[in-house]
Amino acid sequence: MRCRIAAVFLLPALAVFLPSVARAAEHITLKNGFDLICDHRQVDGDRVRLYLDDSSANFIDVGTTEIVAVEHVDLPHAANAQAPKDAAPYSEANLRDAKLTPQAMHELLTQAGSAHDLDVDLLASVVRAESGGNPHAVSRTGAQGLMQLMPKTAANLGVGNSFAPGENVNGGTAYLDALLKKYHDNLALALAAYNAGPAAVDRWHGIPPYHETRVYVARVIREFNRRYAARMAAQKQGSGTQVASVSPSAGR
Fold first, then answer.
1. Using CA atoms, how far apart are residues 191 and 91, in angstroms rounded to an integer?
2. Residue 239's CB: how many other CB atoms inside 10 A?
3. Where does 31-186 show beta strands of DSSP type E?
4. Where in the sequence numbering do the catalytic residues fall?
5. Separation between Cα atoms, residue 154 and residue 185, nearest integer Å
6. Residue 10: is its pLDDT beyond 80?
7. What is the reported pLDDT for 244?
8. Among 71, 118, 166, 243, which residue's Cβ finds the most Cβ atoms within 10 Å?
């Protein structure tokens, strides 16, 4: 999310809770350009409640005039969905090799964020979800470094060494910035594309129904919400600058 609109992300965050089993659902497109998949709808006057699964817990209320298109879709079984990156790309064992201090990490993220007008807490949230702050992390699919760049993506971004923290963060930030521009600053879609690839997002016209991708988007947005709220509270109290720590234990 861009620094200038860093707080506009709460409603789209709910869209990651998609049905996880194969069944009929509805692909809803809203007037603001955001789209999601819902299990069913309930109309109440000029408002519509969009239920994001078959329970009553996860829903979004919108005006009837905000819905511009409804398409019936069949979601695949989660086991059949092919997401290109696996979850939990780091472990306690390789975290022992991490050398970056919280202050050094903060400086890296601040520099990259300033270069691309991205919120430092958003970058910290992505780094935490991708690698837990370990610059030596390697996933089972070959994604590398702090922001888990695949070798081909890293090469396209001009990253010569994905294990060099500065190169990796600069490359990953540039990639996230490009995705935010592609999806008109829709954070949920940009994160889904970062995880599953833009082709999957474009194919599904929204967050693809991959379990890992749904969990990833929810995790990053939840962490970004937490960090952003804490920073705003600290600023009100005049407590000074916060360090964007990405320790896996932070906030748990």
1. 22
2. 10
3. 35-38, 40-44, 47-51, 59-63, 67-74
4. 130
5. 22
6. no
7. 59
8. 118
Does the pTM surpass 0.70? The reply is no
In this chain, the answer to whether the domains covering 14-77 and 81-237 adopt an identical fold is no
Reported as a single tens digit per residue, the pLDDT across 194-205 is 999 999 999 999
- The SS3 assignment for 27 reads strand
Nearest to 175 by CA among 165, 167, 59, 236: 167
Query: So what's the architecture of 81-237 in CATH?
Result: Orthogonal Bundle (1.10)
Residues 38-82: tens digit of each pLDDT: 778 888 888 888 776 666 666 677 788 888 888 876 654 443 444
Residue for token pair 């609109």: 5
The residue type found at 122 is L
The architecture (CATH level 2) of 14-77 comes to Roll (2.30)
Order of strands across the sheet with 35-38?
35-38, 24-30, 67-74
Strands (E), the chain: 24-30, 35-38, 40-44, 47-51, 59-63, 67-74
